[in-house]
């Protein structure tokens, strides 16, 4: 069976999942204590949005090497947000069930990014 060709970054499963998770992070962090608005909440939003932003920017670059570099940056942000979710859970800002689901999904994004990086040589 022939694989469907990806026409744009918007069609990529890794981009779609990263975007969906970013929206969830924005929603969750909007309920954080006010003291965290410029601290942990802001950092989580930046890390989460960095993933789909770097995927999109890398895809728009002129070489596979540049794309691979941006995908690597996105992977680092996925690792960063995974820890921030655990920290938020331990601070009582996110419940254990939601934190596990989010961490598992960000780990999945990380694995998807690893495959993308490998495919770019």
**Number of beta strands:** 0
- How many domain units? 1
| Uncertain residue ranges | none
Give me the CATH fold name: de novo design (two linked rop proteins)
Order of SSEs, N→C?
Answer: HHHH
Q: Please describe the biggest sheet, giving its number of strands, its sense, and whether it closes into a barrel.
A: none
Principal-axes geometry comes out as elongated
Summing up helix and strand content along with how strands pair, one would put the structural category as: mainly alpha
How many helical elements? 4
Radius of gyration: 15 Å
Our measurement of the CA-to-CA distance between the termini, rounded to an integer number of angstroms, reads 24 Å
Task: Quickly name the level 1 CATH class.
Answer: Mainly Alpha
* CATH homolog superfamily: 23S rRNA-intervening sequence
Please estimate the helix content.
over 70%
User: β content, as a range?
Assistant: under 5%
- The whole-number mean of residue pLDDT values reads 93
Q: What is the CATH architecture descriptor?
A: Up-down Bundle
